[in-house]
User: Fold these one by one.
Assistant:
Number 1:
Amino acid sequence: MRQEDADELTSYIDTHRPIIYINYFDFHAVDGLIAQVNKDIPVYEYNEAGRHVDFKTKAPKGAIERSGNLAGFLTAFDDNKPRKAFLVLKDAHHYFQKESPSYSPEIIALLKSIAQRIMYTEGYYVTVFLVCSELALPPELEKMITVFDIPFPTIDEIETLIKKEYAECIIDENTINELTVSFKGLSDFEIRQILNLAYQRSGMITAEDKILVLKEKEQIIKKSGILEIVPVNSTMDDVGGLSNLKKYLRDKSYIFNNLGEARQFGIDLPKGILIVGMPGCGKSLTAKATANQFNVPLLRLDIGKLMGKYVGESEENLSRAIKTAEAVAPCVLWIDELEKAFAGVGGSGGASDITTRLFGQFLTWLQEKESSVYVVATSNKLNALPPEFKRKGRFDELFLVELPNAQERRKIFEIHLGKRKKLTGDVNVIPLLKETEGYSGADIEAVVKETIEGAFISDDKTVTTDKLLNTIKNTKSISITLKEEIEALTKEYEKYNLKQATPK
Ligand code: ATP
C-alpha cells in the first residue's frame, strides 16, 4: 500500500476517529495496510467467517471466540475494555442492512456504545475498523464513521510493481510501458492476478497479454451491475446532418487518440459534451457514433439505478460506477436523459438530498477528471438541469440539436433508405422534403420503415417516391403529436446560447 494511504489512515487513528469503514474486496491488502499503520497496538479481529482470529496468523483465538457470534464478541470486547486496541471486523455490513436476515440492531448498538466511549473517555485508544466488501452505513452510526477509500495504483506504482516483481519474465521496456498503461484502473490484486495468469500460460509476459487486461475489464463492468456496455454499430456516417457537432467530435477523437502528444502540446484532456435537443433527432445516435469514432467501448450509466436504500449507498454506487468507467478507460461514458437523473437537485427531503449529493459528487468528478473517460450526456430539457451543468469547465461544450432542416432531412432519408437498400431509381427524395417539415429523424426513419413494410406486402414489392409520400400523408410528425411540448422546447432553447449542431 502507498505511503500516502498509510499516512492518511494514521491521521484518522491519531485524531481518534472512532470507526473507520474500509470498503474494499481485497482483505489481504487491507490487513497489510492496517499492519503498516499499527504501532504495537493489540488487534482483535472478527473475520468474515464469523470467528475471532489472530490478526497475524489467522488462527482461531481463545477467550473471546467462545462468545459465538459478533454480538457476543463485541460484548466480551466491551467487558474486557482494553485501553489500546484495533478492533477489526470483516464483512459486518450484513448486520447493518435492514432486509438482511442477519440485520442486528444489537450489534449496531454495541458498536455505538464502543464508539461513544472512544469519543468521550480519556486514555481510551481504540479504533474500530469495519472492513467490508460492500458499503452499508447504518444511520445510527453514520456520524461516527469515517469512510476510507483505497485508490487504485497510479501509473508509477504499477510500473514499480511490474519491474520489481515480474522483471525476469518480461522481455523489454516497451512491454512494460504498454502493460503499465493498460493496467491503470485495476487494483493491485487484479494486476497481480493477470500477470500471474499470463506467466503461467507461457512462462513469459508479453504485450499480447493486454488482451487479458481487456477481458478483466469487461468482467469488471459485468460484475459492477451498474454500468451497461452498449454495442456500438453506428458510425458518424449514420448520423444525418448535425455537421458542426460531427466535426467537433471528429476533431476531439484525434486529440483523444493521441493524448500523450496532445498533453505535451499543452492541450487539456477532453472531458465530454452535453447534447441538448429535440426528441428523436439523433442525440443518442451521436453518442453511439462517438464511441465508434473514438474507437473505444461505450458504457451507459443510468443514474436512476444508482439510488440505494441505505445511507451512503447511492454515493457509493456512483463512485463504483465512476471507478468502473475509469478502469475501462479509454471509453465513452454515455449518460442518457441527464435531466431525469438530476431532477430534484437543491430540493429538500430524503430523495432530493441524495440526488443533490450525487450531483455534487458527479460535478466534482467531471471537473477534476484525470482519466480518459469521455462523457457524452444527452438531454431534452435544459430548464430542468441544474445551472452548474451549463457553466464552462464542466462539459467542454454544450450543443443544441434541433429538428432537421431540409438538407438534413434529405441525408436522413438517404441514410435510412440506403441502409435497407431501397435508394433506387424509383425513389427521388427531393419531393419528400417539403412534406416533412417538422419531422424528427426518428419520424423519417418510421416513414421509411413503414413504406418498406407496405411494399413488401404489396404485389409489386417496390418502394417508390409516391409510396413514401403516401406514408408521409398518413403520418403525424412529432411537431404535431407533441405540438405544445415542441413549441415550449423551442422557446426554452432560444434562451440559452448553445453551440448549434447544425450550421445556421
Ligand atoms: P430522445 O431525446 O427521445 O432520446 P434522441 O435525440 O436521442 O431522442 P435518437 O435515439 O438518436 O434520438 O434517434 C432515434 C432514431 O431516429 C435513431 O436511432 C435513428 O435511427 C433515427 N434518427 C434520429 N436522428 C437521426 C439523424 N440525424 N440521422 C439519422 N437517423 C436519425
Note: The CA atoms of residues 175 and 207 lie 5 Å apart.
Number 2:
Amino acid sequence: MPDQPLPVIAVLATGGTIAGAQADATSAGYKAGSFSVGDLLAAVPQLAGLADIRAEQVANVGSQNMTHDVWRALAQRVDALCADASVAGIVITHGTDTLEETAYFLSLVIRHDKPVVLVGAMRPATALGAEGPANLYNAVALARHPDARGRGPLVVMNEDVHYAREIQKIASAGINAFASPNRGRAGVMHGGAPYFYSRNTTTHTTQSEFSLALLEKSGWPRVDIVYAHANLQADVIAFIAGQADGIVLAGVGDGNATDLAVDALTRAAADGVAVVRSSRTGSGFVARDVELDDAALGFAAARDLNPQKARILLMLALCVTREPAAVQRYFDRY
Ligand code: SIN
C-alpha cells in the first residue's frame, strides 16, 4: 500500500529566544532572533517524520519589539494559509515576552478553525539543554492533530498546552515560565500527542466579530496601559489621555488606584477616552461596579483578562463603540 502523504504544516517564524544565539553555551546573555527558520527546522530532523513543512520568515525580532505591523503581516499570512485547503495547520515561532499577546490578538481576528499553534523557548538555541527543538516538535505534532481544531490559537511550551486567552508569562527565567492562572492549562503534550483537559468556552476565531479589516478601517485605535502603584499621580494619566483612544488600568488588587488617578481616569472617560480597569496582580477577577462604581465613572472592567490582553480587546472594541456599557459587553463575552 502506498504511504499516506504527510500533512502540510506551515511554520511562520518571527524570532525570539527560540532563534537566539549566545556567545557561549552557558552564558546568560544572548541575542534573540539570530537564527533563521531554516536553522530552527534543521535542528529538529524528527519533524521530517511528522509533516511536510513549509517555512516562512515573517519577521526576526525579539518579541519585546513586536509591533502592530508584524501582527498585520502575521494575521494576513495565517488567514491565507487557513484558506488554503492543502495546509493542515500552522505553527508560529515567537519570542516568549509578548507571545501571549500575539496569540490572543490572532484568536480575535482569525475567523477559521484550523489549528494555529504558537511556540517559543526560554533558552536560546545555542544553550545547554535548549528546549526549543522539543517545543517545536510538539508544536508541529499539535498543529497536525485533529483535536487541535476549533480551539482557537494554542500555545505549547514545556509540554503544556494553553489557550490563547488564558496563557500568561509568569516568570522572567526558567523553562516553566508559562501558566494559565485563572482557568488552567488546556492540556499536555505526551509522546507527541495532545491530551486536552478542557474545552475553550470563550469567544474566539469563528465566533469572533472582529477582524483585521475592521482594525484597518478604524486605523488601529490607540490603547495604552497605566500601571498603578503607591502614590500614582494624575499628570501621567492626563498626558496619556491626550494621546490615546483608550486606557487600560493595570490596577492594584481589584483594579483600583489612588484617588488622584481614579479622578484623572474619570475626567478622561468624560472626555471620550475608553477606560477599562484590570488588575496588575497576575490573576483573579475585576468585576464591574464592585470596587468602584464603574457605571457612574464611565469605566468598564476587564474581568479575568490581564492588562496586556485587555489592551487588545479594547483596541478591537473601540473599532465598534466607545460607549462604556457596550465596551463592557465585549469584556463580558470575550
Ligand atoms: C523575546 O521575547 O523575543 C525574548 C525572550 C524570549 O523569547 O524568551
Note: Residues 218-333 form a domain with the Rossmann fold fold (CATH 3.40.50.40).
